[in-house]
Design goal:
- It contains 8 helices and 9 strands.
- The N terminus is likely disordered.
- It is globular and about 50 Å long.
- The chain is 39% helix and 20% strand.
- The strands form 2 sheets. A 7-stranded mixed sheet has the order 3-2-1-4-7-9-8, with helices on both faces. Strands 5-6 form a two-stranded antiparallel ribbon.
């Protein structure tokens, strides 16, 4: 198995269900880590092809719009790369096929840290959690352990140079009982700027910054942090 050089930057793979999920969930943290020199990669699992109430919109057109918005937002964050799995919005399930696609990206990117949805959260921010979010969280955790680690899972990967990989830690956003809080005071405005790229989803978003600031203040206040994002961190066994 390939070993990371001490000179290589820490790599973070953000695995999300839809375009705009990375910015809403961990945009401040990703921007901070990118500014600190970590390499941030995005993997978006669906095309976002059903996220519109516009009667004139088609799925084909929406895919082009939302993928363009996601790439623009990632540039604002400082992400190194954005990739899409192109599964259909609203139809995700933690299948073996879906897991293979995630494992392939884990073995290609070889991240130290994976960030994704908490699959246990049925309710989040006072509303029902999207089923795609739960499916991505479950499939990602199953991909991290044990699937990406064990070489006899998807042996065809090895034939193309994709070797087994062991992720060191996982950060779950939307967790009901977080155990890690990240100060995003220095990158909160970057988070807002990145979300404004998602015009098809947030519109002009005059009240977006105020609403998200209030949320970040509420998350950070018990920890004495002005503005925070919270996660449940899982340190993987060495």
């Amino acid at each position: 198995m390939q070993q990371q050089s001490v000179d290589e930057p820490i790599r973070v793979l953000v695995i999300a269900a839809h375009p705009d999920d990375p910015e809403f969930a961990c945009g401040g943290t990703s921007a901070r880590w990118a500014a600190e020199g970590k390499e941030v990669y995005y993997l978006v699992c669906t095309r976002g092809d059903r996220g519109s109430s516009d009667p004139e919109m088609t799925s084909e057109r929406l895919v082009q719009i939302r993928q363009g918005e996601q790439r623009a937002a990632a540039r604002v964050i400082g992400a190194k790369e954005v990739n899409f799995l192109n599964f259909t919005d609203g139809e995700l399930a933690p299948t073996y096929e879906f897991r293979e696609a995630i494992v392939r990206e884990i073995r290609r990117v070889r991240p130290d840290c994976v960030m994704t949805h908490d699959p246990t959260s049925v309710y989040t921010a006072g509303s029902l959690n999207h089923p795609d979010h739960r499916a991505v969280g479950t499939a990602t955790l199953d991909s991290v352990y044990p699937t990406a680690r064990d070489r006899l899972n998807y042996p065809e990967h090895e034939q193309t140079g994709l070797l087994p990989h062991k992720v060191k830690e996982v950060y779950l956003w939307g967790a009901p009982n977080p155990n890690v809080w990240v100060d995003i005071s220095s990158t909160f405005e970057t988070k807002i700027e990145s979300l404004r790229c998602h015009v098809s989803q947030v519109g002009k978003a005059e009240q977006l910054a105020e609403r998200l600031r209030e949320r970040a203040q509420k998350v950070g206040e018990p920890q004495g942090i002005p503005l925070a994002e919270a996660f449940f961190k899982v340190a993987m066994a060495r």
